[in-house]
Structures are given as C-alpha cells and as structure tokens.
Amino acid sequence: MIxxxxxxxxxxxxxxxxxxxxxxxxxxxxxxxxxxxDQEIEExxxxxxxRPEADSVPANSWLSLHLMDSGKILPLASRNEFTxxxxxxxxxxxxxxxxxxxxxxxxxxxxxxxxxxxxASSVVxxxxxxxxxxxxxxxxxxPHLEEALSHGDIVALGKLKIQILLRDI
Amino acid sequence: xxxYQQDYYAVLSVSRDASPEEIKRAYLEAAQKLHPDKNKAxxxxxxxxxVQQAYETLSNPDRRSKYxxxxxxxxxxxxxxxxxxxxxxxxxxxxxxxxxxxxxxEIGPPADADKSSSPPLNVALVIDRxxxxxxxxxxxxxxxxxxVLRNLRPQDILSVITFSDRAEVIIPAAYHQERTKLExxxxxxxxxxxxxxxxGLEAGVEEIMRSVDAxxxxxxxxxxxxxxxxxxxxxxxxxxxxxxxxxxxSGMGIGGEWNDIFLDALSTSTGGSSAHISDPHDIxxxxxxxxxxxxxxxxEEATLEVRPVEGVEVSYVFRLQPDPSxxxxxxxxxxxxxxxxxxxxxxxxxxxIQPKAVKSEALTFMDGTxxxxxxxxxxxxxxxxxxxxxxxxxxxxxxxxPAEIHQALSRLTLYRMQERARKEIERGNFxxxxxxxxxxxxxxxxxxxxSLAHTVAxxxxxLKNQRSLSExxxxxxxYGTRSLFLASPKKELVQ
Lengths: 169, 495
Prior knowledge:
The complex is a heterodimer of chains A (169) and B (495). By secondary structure, chain A is mainly beta. Chain A has helices spanning 38-46, 104-107, and strands at 2-3, 10-11, 63-67, 73-76, 81-85, 97-98, 112-118, 123-127, 134-136, 139-140, 146-149, 154-157, 160-166. A six-stranded antiparallel β-sheet of chain A has the order 4-3-13-12-9-10, with no helix packed on it. Chain A has a five-stranded mixed β-sheet with strand order 6-5-7-8-11, with no helix packed on it. The longest helix of chain A has 9 residues, at 38-46. By secondary structure, chain B is of the alpha/beta class. A six-stranded mixed β-sheet of chain B has the order 2-17-16-10-14-13. A six-stranded mixed β-sheet of chain B has the order 6-5-4-7-8-9, with helices on both faces. A five-stranded antiparallel β-sheet of chain B has the order 1-3-15-11-12, with helices on one face. In chain B, helix 7 runs parallel beside helix 8.
C-alpha cells in the first residue's frame, strides 16, 4: 500500500498517482504505522514556539487551537465539546476537528486522539486512548482522565503541538 | 504475395491453441459471411474456398497436428502493422496485498506504409432534425454536410438520414454520378418533432448495410442535440450488433441538453467515440475533421480479446489516442477502434493483481489475441497472440515507471476524478464528490489549465447550491479532461 503524502489516502501498491487527490505518489516509500518514542516527542517539545498575539483570537470562540508548526489558528465556537483526530476512509467515527491538513499522520495523531470540553468553570483535555499519547506541557497524560487547561498551555497529540488559547469563561 | 505469413489459423482468425469448438464457430461465422450465395465483393468466393480448406485441416486432430508442425512459432508471425508494449514495472512483487500494474499497447502502420492507399468510405450521416435544432444549429449542419459531400472521393459512399420521431432518407447509400444534384435535398431539411434516436439509427444501419463491405470503412456519424427517451436499450443492442459486423459509430452532441453517458456507451461499444460540440459553429470544423480521419484509415478495426486470468482483474481501459475515450469491456473483448495512418492507436490497461496470483516466480497476467481488420490487405491478417509474463520478486521494484506511462496517467487521473465525482453524485455522496472536484480544480490550476479549472470551480458552486452539476458543465469537464490527452488541446471545447 502507498500512503499519499498529500492527502493520506491509502492507494494500492503500484499506483502512480493518488486516486483521491491526483498527487504523484510513485517513488514515495511505502509507509507503515510506527510508534514514536517518548524521547522523540520530548525533544520535539523542547523546541520553543512563538507565542501568538492574544488579539488574533476571534471574539465569539471560547477556545482556539494554535497549530505551532504551521502557525495556523483554529477558533472553535458553538459547541462545548470537540474531539480531535484525523479523518480516514472507511472509519465510522469521525473527529470533530480533522487535523489531517496539519501533518497529523506523520506526527502520530490517532484517528480519535483526544477531546477538549468546557463546563461551567473550566476547560479540560482528555486523552482517548491514543497510540502515541497526549502530552500537557511535556507531561504524558493518563488516558481517559480529564486534566484542566489554562491559557497558553501546550498540548501535544503525539508530535503535533497545539497551543491552547482560552477566553475568559 | 502478402508481407505476412498466411496460415489456416489466420484464415479462420483464431489462435493456435483454439479449441475444436472455437474453430468450428469461427468456420461457421466466416462461411456464413463468405458463402457464394451471399457474398458481395469480388474475391470473396476465393476466400470462402480458403476457409473451407482451412477448416478441413484444422477440424481433424491428426491433420491439425501434422499441419502445426510445419508452422513457425506463433510469437514470430510477421504482421502487417507495427506494435509496441510498454509496462509500468519490470516485475511484480510477492505481496500480501493487491497491486496495480499498467501497460500501454500501441498499434500503428509500419514505417514503410503506403499512405496513398486507404480504404473507401461507407458512411451514414444521421442528423437529428428535432425542433430544438432549428436556427443556427441546423444551418451550420446543412452547410457542413454539403461541404463534406463535395469533398468526398469518387470511390466513397455517403448516405444522409434525418430523424425526429421518424426517420427519412435524404441521400440513399449508392454511387452518385452528379453529387451537386443531391445538395438541394440537404438544403430542404426542415426541423420539426421530437428526438428518437433509435429511428435514425435504424435507418442509418439500413443504408450502411446496402454497401457494407469488409474492404470499406463502415461508419455511422450521429449528430444530435437532445435526450432520447425510452429507446436507449434498443439503440445499445443495435450498436452491439453493428460492432460484430465491423460498423463503428461516432456520436456528436451539440450544446448541453443531451445524454453524454448514453452517447458514449453507444459509440464506445463499437470502438468509436463521442464528442461534445459546445458552440454550433464548431460543427464546421469537427465534422469534416471526423471525415478526414475516416479517410486516413489504415485499419478499420482492432479488437483485443483476453482470456481471464485467476486473481488478475483488468480494472480500467482507456484509449489515449486518436480519440481519447474509455473502452468498455464487451465480455472479454475490448474494441480499440480504427487505426489511422498518421497517428498510432494507444490504449492503457490497468490491472489489479491479487496476492493469490503472485505465489509463484512468474505470472502470465495477460493472455490475449489482437485481431485487426485491414481492407487494403487482400487476405485476412493473422491474429496477434499477446502473452505477457512478468517475473515475481520478493519486493516490488523501486523506481518510476517509463515516461509514457507517467504522462498518460497524469492525465488519466484527472479524467477519472471527474468520472468518480459524477458517480458519487449519482449515489448521493455529495461530500465525496465535492472533495474530488475541489482536488480536480486544484490540479488543473496547478497545471495551467485555467479555463477548465474555472469550469470545475463553477460546477462546485452548482453542486453546493443545487446538489447537482449543470448539463453543459458536466460535459465540459468530461470532454475537457479528455482533450488534455491530445498534444494540442482543443481550447474551444474547454472554455
């Protein structure tokens, strides 16, 4: 199987162009799912990320995700709970936030990786039993246990680092 | 003396390992066509005698094996055409998952071909004269038909048929001494009535059959601008019969209100192709071009017949040139259409090979026979046995496929994206379709096909708002992505 580096679509061995997005895929190495070591993740996390300006967050969202590698900011609103992960074909459960465009596959993000939600007083993150784990400021979280978040915290899904930008609740 | 080896198998047009049943069937078919009571052309009685002689030898196992011993190996049979096969990879991998393999088959005239001798035409021009054709469309069609008539060679036969809810023969199929006298008949065509293609097609077939002859290019050109209702199946059944008799169909749709999927199925089942004429003025160019191509015929027909191989599926076949078009399978047969003198025919085959087929060291993934009919050759051409065996290595070979395959697939991928998007819309999967079209638009844009990219972007809006594509737009996408295969894209079609 050849996984398209552009859209992560799984193509049959011997394919020359991705049937999903049309990208050229011959010469791309056949990929296998691999676990990322804790050390690799910690090294990644040591690299400092720039702090974005607070006013770049739109007013109507209670939470924004700052994708630190790409610098993209995803403002979230209208719901109190969002699951994070990546879309993959043929999978019945889909994450609310698809991180595929941000190199989720290469960073070791699981299909259903973690959830962020808010209640009356706080915003929490919880790992959903992901393969490569969820880290809060470099500390690995226990799966299925909620952990409180504060503004500026860095959550890592595998190697994908996301800075949490909160508005006052 | 023909330039190629003439043997009994060629006379019956069967391969060397044909079963006694196949030989018998081939004999009956040939004998029916060539019987002195029925045959029309000069020399067919002689061919009939040859067929009988061949059958007498091959139907008897003793005589057949003695005869076989005198023949040169089948793979070395000399053929009167040039052929080439390009494969995507030098070997297959011993994998536990399916793998794809591509090959391009190219057939063309030999370098020393005599370009002056091309077979005479037997063409029926079937014109839709329904009410919607009134005005400019009909005027251009009439003017172009007259121009085509004037440009014919003396040996060519052209019949002209119009149809609405019934058909009318304007010019019957025959040799005409003074063609200018036929022109008023064309000028007098008046648009009125509905579109019922089957009537037109049936009348066209009747005219074609008056002078059908293996030594001619027998072809029906169907010009329409509307949907036909309820007679599609009849039309397709007729087309399948025509294909067996060596008659091709080219469909030309004017404007946006016609059924491209039907017209495509109708033409490709005979080895022909369909075309989209967006602006009626283009008829002036496209129709004479079609006649010109038919006049440049080197071989009237090429058909590939394949035997099924366990674990190997021919998943897609597409003619890259001369007329880019998908080629549907008719049973085990793939009709590749006529071969032109100035442009070899090229088709790409996609195979999906299952793990169970690659258990041993080598796999014969293709076992087929190519039959080519050439009116300019006095005797039947031996079928070309194509047997392709690929070695199986433990890992799939690294590296890129040859440039020809690369180039063909880069365009085929785009064509198939719009094809898939339309299928997904039919199934109601609008999100998948939207994603495919978005990717298609991005790809076209990055390749500099701006106008086609805009057409796709426009259809994306239509999909978002109306959950369907526009009639005109979906045709522009289809024929636009097809025209990308040609060296000089027909820009007018994709605006």
